[in-house]
Amino acid sequence: MKFESEAQRALDTAVSHGADYADVRFGLVRDEHLEIRNGVVNGLSDAESAGFSVRAFYAGAWGFASSAVISDAEVDRIAALAVDIAKASARVKGNQRITLLPAGKQVGAYRTQFEIDPATVSLSDRVKYLMDVEAEARAAKGVTVGRAWLDVWRTFKSFASTEGSLIDQELLQCGSAVHALAVGDGDAQDRIFPGTCGLYQTGGYEIINAADLLANARRVGEEAVALLTAPQSPSGTMDVVLSGDQVSLQIHESIGHALELDRVLGWEANFSGTSFATLDKCGSFSYGSDIVTVVCDMTCPKALATHGYDDEGTPARSVDLIRNGTLVGYMAGRDTASVVNVPVSGCVRSEYWGRLPMIRIGNVNLLPGAAPEAALFDGIKNGLYMESNRSWSIDDKRLNFQFGCQIGYEIKDGKKGRLVKNPTYAGMTPKFWNSCDAIGDERSWVAWGTPNCGKGEPLQTARSCQGASPARFRNVEVGVGYVG
Amino acid sequence: MLGEITSDRGELEAILERVFARSQADQTEALLYVSDSALTRFTHNSIHENVSELNRNLSVRAVFGKRVGVASTDKLDADSIAAVVERATEIAKLSPEDKDFPGLPSPAAAGIPHDPPHPYDEVTARLSADARASAVAEIARVMNRHELDAAGFVSSRSDALALGNSLGIRRYFKSTDAALNIKAIGETSSGYGEGFARSFADLPFAELAERAAKKAVDSANPQVLAPGKYTVILEPPAFHEFVGYLSWIGFGAQPFEEGSSFMAGRLSEKIVGDNVTIRDDYAHPKGDGMPFDFEGVARQPVTLIERGIAKDVVYDSYYAAKLRHANTGHALPAPNSEGPLPLNIVIEPGSKSIEQLIAETKNGVLVTRSWYIRLVDQKKTLITGMTRDGLFSIKDGKVGPGLKNMRFNESIVGALGRCELAKELARSDSYVLPAVKIEGFHFTSGTEF
């Protein structure tokens, strides 16, 4: 294992200061970002960081410390500090005593599989490609701002624990998108492709190629311009079909966050909030219709959160969250799982080496249904199709939500109708998922990545996935945000 | 000295000089920050997360004519400094020209920054985990007395930023900050209190805990409010969340130039009520601003809206040159796809206390905190969001029973045309603002708690 001697030094120091358990993570991160805006390279950066952290458990309480300096002296200082912090935590325990499920000794290595190493694609080739993409978006007459961007993220991390675990991982994630903004008389309309914020997955440069930005950029620009003069999306109650990327966001907000066990236990109460999906509901609560099955699968190929082990040494696995509409599980870590006796799910992660690992939405996938995508409009006399998120808001127990999409189309007598702008829909989580009566089959299923999920204090950004197909929902309230 | 990371001005500037000595670019900018932060988080009156982070970052911007490249690292040995300069150089040489890039600011153009009042407190910089735990224990005692649970955090941090460029700009700023966040939780209700200060000693832990607890107790067994338009009073945390999007979507030169800002084409027009004045002021005594921007340009106080009239937006060197406007010193770190932004918004107070505003309200709603606000329509400044942690009815000038939380859909600019501001200013995160009373505030639906 890389950093093995430093890791052992940290663990020895933590134990000698009194830790009941400790783990240490060393990390090397390199993030490349390239963005073109209106024909100019607006962002071109190459950021690297390296550092380590120690998590110490003492008398049922946690301490955590991290540093960007990797040296023997700093390893000693940080390990001792983590234990001191844990001892301070132990002074204020109220009625809560945290216990920790053992992860067992895990020794192994994991590396993201990829087809094209991004290092083989020159910076000049990347710039030329995105310049072409952005120019194509702005070639649509009336586009005010064109943007195109790509990201290449490499993370190397080593994990060791006082249970004997030694794990190396090398993760590679890539993503890209094109964006057009059209500004008209008192109006501004955006379109982004693919999906809400681009196509982000684990893998190599083939992920960026697969997004096929160039072939879609002109359409994206034309749609943004067309939206300026499109009629306002209707208000009322009607059947809706959501694109796969919008279903993905709906899963993220109304299932993913709701089923993080730390939220359920109140550990995020002051900030991200808690959850309506309380422990008493597990095993019996009708979260959705019987075609709704959702898993957290940290082994899913290409999915953005896929890894070999999480940041507390739990091997990647798949855990059922909703089975045929019934709530059956949660995303749990070693400490939260011990509180309620549920399995750990291998999705405890930190933004980088310097931050505390916590339960993060992993690959929370809605399993494909049986409907060919083209059949989702069947039987809808007067409905609305909505694609790609524009705004998202949900209460702090994940019940009352309101989402807006970038583009909509009327559905008339089972057929796609005219373009409409500013489509929104709203509802209450269980009622909404129980209204789902058709889910697209595996041909329309995509492992949509979300690169910017925020949670925790200090705030951490995480990369999650919500694999989804387009889906149909009955009797949904639409147009709320624009009712005077 | 923080572990093996220094925040000493001389040592940080020596690293900058190594960057400049190494670089072969026409112009070079280096930005080096060091931060030592700690946060103790609690729930169920018990500490469950407790972290300390010592971090640093060196960012180098290399300029060749009108080609620009940026690279960053957290390693500061000679080889790593050479490597980061090399990467920035390589990126710049491969980058197409940006014909509007004006070059880095010169010392003459950057002006002379003036520190805000009392930005650094040694005790806060060196605060121990025990001191933070004692503060949490004090909060827990208040909650136990009221038979409530509390969740929240106590935090402290110390930051040092050294910045310079090859034209001769040299800047250094050292600051501290501390924060307190308390959610008091009862069986059917919750309440909220928050505090921010440069100095940990200035945070009133027990007072804010009592305030949060009172809100939780007073809002127990909340009633259902029918959707509709109401007179609301937003306390500072709720008002901060409510107006927070304005900086991003409207007060910067980039959306202003592109036309997506609500300010675009409307300078000198009355856009909100004539009782509303909004400024960006890094030096406000209650704020947490720094005296120069991330290009080293002295921050200027900017009046964005004055007595209801759209006055100006903020600029960095790029947009100042492009739009032929004075640079107001609001650059973000390069590379920056957002353009310049105001980071220290101050909304001028009104003349009445919040108690007076409540007393003058016959039928209304008091909002303690808002949550998950998102932009529905940028040009119209239409947002949606939820209330949380203390929603109350106001009847005949008195705060009445608690209410179940509500979703709102409202135009920020529209609401600022129907508002009255309280006279007491509070800091909420980086904003300094009063409570506000808004007529005809649109609640569109409710939730179950």
Task: Explain the overall architecture.
The complex is a heterodimer of chains A (484) and B (449). With 484 residues, chain A is α+β, with helices and mostly antiparallel strands. Chain A folds into two domains: 4-229, PmbA/TldD superfamily (PmbA/TldD fold); 236-482, no CATH class. Chain A has helices at 4-16, 72-90, 123-138, 206-211, 213-229, 244-256, 261-264, 334-340, 429-434; strands at residues 21-37, 40-58, 61-67, 107-111, 145-161, 166-184, 187-193, 199-202, 236-242, 294-297, 318-323, 326-327, 348-349, 358-359, 364-366, 382-394, 400-412, 415-420, 424-428, 436-439, 446-455, 460-468, 471-478. In chain A, the strands form five sheets. In chain A, strands 1, 2, 3, 4, 5, 6, 7 and 8 form an eight-stranded mixed β-sheet that branches. The longest helix of chain A has 19 residues, at 72-90. Chain A is globular, with a radius of gyration of 23 Å. In chain A, 66% of the residues are buried. With 449 residues, chain B is an alpha+beta fold. Chain B has helices at residues 9-22, 78-94, 107-110, 122-125, 129-145, 205-218, 236-243, 245-249, 253-258, 317-322, 354-359, 412-415; strands at 27-43, 46-64, 67-73, 149-165, 170-185, 190-197, 228-234, 278-280, 302-306, 309-310, 345-347, 363-377, 382-395, 398-402, 406-411, 419-421, 426-428, 431-433, 436-446. In chain B, strand 1 and strand 2 (46-64) form a beta hairpin. Chain B is globular. Chains A and B meet through strand 1, strand 2, strand 3, helix 2 and helix 3 of A and strand 1, strand 2, strand 3, helix 2 and helix 5 of B. Strand 2 (40-58) of chain A pairs parallel with strand 3 (67-73) of chain B, so a sheet runs across the interface.
